[in-house]
Amino acid sequence: MIPRRRVPPRPSLYPKPERLPWREKMTLCLAAEFMRDGESGVIAAYDMNAENEWVGADIQHKGYFLLDDFFFMMAGSISRAIELARCCENVISERQTKGDETLESLQEAVVMQKRKLAAEYVGMRLGMSYEEFFDTGKEKLPEEIFREIITDIKGIGLGCSLLVIDFSISSPTIFRVSDTCVERCSNFAAIGTGLLIAESLLFLREHNFATDVGEALFNAWEAMRLGSLVPGVGETFNIDVLSRKNGKVRSEELTEEHEKYLEKQVTRFSLREPKKIQFKKDDLRPTQYLQYPPRAKSAKAK
Fold it and tell me: Which residues contact 252 (CB under 8 A, 6 or more apart)?
């Protein structure tokens, strides 16, 4: 019997684009501490970009007060981020969290959210509850299916990241919630695909909690502007100046005049191209490599 020749399938004229993993968190949110008149505060900045596989627009607000003393910023799937933020809100409210207790409350909320996502996956895949799957799934299901579901559950992520700014005590604290951990951040923090550029610039500017509010606004504006070079991060962004006054959290925004001023200053002083770099032929020389392993001396050389 002559084997039939395998013919490759014809390529589709309209292929569906694959959604790449890094597209899940295409945004930039930034929190940076500052000092004004001896009082500490936090600058909250986020881009407005929202998109699907084909188009996008700068239409999405990503910063909200869910409690009087807690400001949330979101990256990744907005629907998942809102679910996680609501879960954090419920835990913080029930435990009446303040100060050092915030980290534990956020960790508990992440555990609850991951359990909820696992239950959602099991229900949609098998039509049974999460508890029923672990109680009787091993007996009811083929072993390979049961092991496959367990492996899938281990790989379920939050699908989002959060920046949480805690004003429950006099000195505000920044927390970052992601798939890997919940951590307390010093001086500044960022989430989203623009994270590396934004945080690198803030390190370059040596930004810290004692930075004056004027300089902090320049640093944040520069980080957001250059962070927008990352694909998927919107060019339009929002900056809120958050501080605590008379026992309440106060939110202020920049005037149009000061936004134009910051844009002009960033254009003038941010990473500028050098005018001319001098170079002469004598600035290069042949490279001298060490021989490894060293050759043994020949008998003639002896």
Answer: 240, 241, 242, 243
